[in-house]
Amino acid sequence: MEEHYRPQPGTPMEDLDTPCLVIDMDALDNNMDVIADCYQGRSAKLRGHAKNHKTPAIAHRQIRRGGTVGGVCAAKVSEAEVMVHGGIPSVFITSEIVGSMKIDRLCALADQAEMLVSCDQAANARDLSKAAQARGVELGVVIELETGLRRCGVREMDAGVALAKEIASLPGLRFRGIMSHQVIPAMPDREDRAVEANRTIKGVIDLKDAIEGAGLPVEIVSTGETWSYDVAADIPGVTEIQGGSYLMMETHYGYMSEFHYAGMILTTIISTPRPGVAIGDAGVRAVSSLLGMPEVSGRPGVTVESMDSDHAVFKFESGDSLKVGDQLLLIPAQQDAMVSRWDRFVGLRNGKVEVVWDIQARGCHN
Prior knowledge:
8-stranded parallel β-barrel; 9-stranded mixed sheet
């Protein structure tokens, strides 16, 4: 990507250098408003996942818009550092953090903001405690329960209760609660989403009850995803939902029509080598193909046949046409991987640049 390209506010979309990562600001505001309206009057709130946008300015906009806990999730310590240094007051790292260097960095952040971190092993909890003591800070620790991703997390109720007791006994740590992640296949309707959310989150509530039965308070039950943002909020005991993808959106979540596609790649046709085929100047390096080819916004007769590093091959039906210089907007199948390729967002409203946001946590893998 061109690191130094920064269009001025007021620049028309057709004058943008491409490829370019753009945000439809009306769609972004719609998506934030859906969340604010959904959680108004509910005890559960959103904790937006910063790994999806990696931009403190956007996190602040989410929080101001409403419906959130007033903080964010992060996947990595480096992402959390960017959020804390950007003024976000509460950050929950939803990955287990191991190794003395990363844990020391985590504890340094606890001097500046409320820091929560997930944990699924007693040895890790002891390492967190030792570092927090040495730094003179308190870390909030949240036990992760495995609920279908086959990734991190405790798998048995007894193990979760034992770990909660261990964490509560360790100096420098404060046991705060439980978290989990879930996935859902295909493109379900709301009834399917409700059934699956209740099924997968039941184990989280069961663990909450078991820990409370052992005499420990559970303040946080952090679970749910974009696909269950509405139904998870109505499950008794859930306090926060870790939604992220809803914000920029992707074709993977196309069945959730209340959210609009916001983050897209603007590309220009550079060649029309044969009838029904056109070549664009954005490829895998710009948009990613992690979950498949992108779709073309507003052009149902135009499809992406393939991509190489820097080009997309478009096919179009006889009723449609493309010529050199035409612009297209590409909707990603998975937007995290797309955003991580770019240095900044260009926000567009009414066809002109409204704002440019640096993606400050781009490349934060550690």
